[in-house]
Amino acid sequence: MSKIARALYQLRPQNPDYQLRALVLAWESGSVPNAQLNDTRLLNAILREALDQNLQHAALAAVNALAQAGNAGVLVTGDGKPSPLAESVNSPNRSVRFAALRAIMTLDPTSPFPGSSRVPEAIAWFAANNAERRAVVAMPTIAAASDVASQLSAHGLDAEATNRGGDAIALARDTPELEAIFVDMDILLPNVREVLFQLRRNATTGDVPIALLAADGRFDAAQKLAAEHQRVIAVPRLHTPEALANAFNELAKLAAPDAVPAAERTAQAAQAREWLAKLESGSRPFYVIRRTASLPPAPPRRPLPATVPHQ
Questions:
Q1: What is the mean pLDDT of the chain?
Q2: Rounded to an integer, what distance in angstroms lies between the CA atom of residue 12 and that of residue 17?
Q3: How many angstroms from the chain centroid is the CA of residue 269?
């Protein structure tokens, strides 16, 4: 893709869109010319395009380059909207989010900037991470959800159970180290479509594998709904340990290929706690720390109606 984009730009060098696409794809493939590393305007454009196209390697490279440039002015915008670097704090990719926080803490702006309220919230989320592996189970009854949650302990997961769609969204959003989400097709308040929509649009849950649990007669509908999203599978309701094991193994295959290893997650948590301590010193009073707050929603990758009648 990078070679094709570069060839297209060479054919139409007067087209700035072709130029930007060629640059972003080159960065995504690992080709980062040194001449581009100090041009903050270009870095902002590359980062914005990488975020829009969900090109994680290009975004990570651009975030790190902006940090190295050392200009806190990149966080200030003329239209009052968050800069690409501030917007990166809300990326669905964990590594990009952490790199953006590290860049902002390195640049250390002395006054508020658009999106600055996201910084302490995101840092607090990373600081809460630990070595535990987590899951969320949402089914029409607490008894059924609790049964599946207890069985997940055999697979090394500490699972939270709920019978409400809204609670499932909140639990998943606020639970660090989340590896899997199980959502029943008959979940309500809100319905399963809205639950999936909210889970996929949030930064901390956008990449988490999800299993849709289908009662008899609903498996076809579950398959169609799963096909509308990334990293979502449809399975019959889990009535046996074997069925749960199979579903868990299928979800494990859907994990993001660049998932962060446990040792690195632990190091990120330690660094985040140091950043929190720095913010709590009061040297930057515009950062308001709310440790229980969650990240604001990220734009959905595949637009869906916010509300669809329950099937």
A1: 84
A2: 10
A3: 16
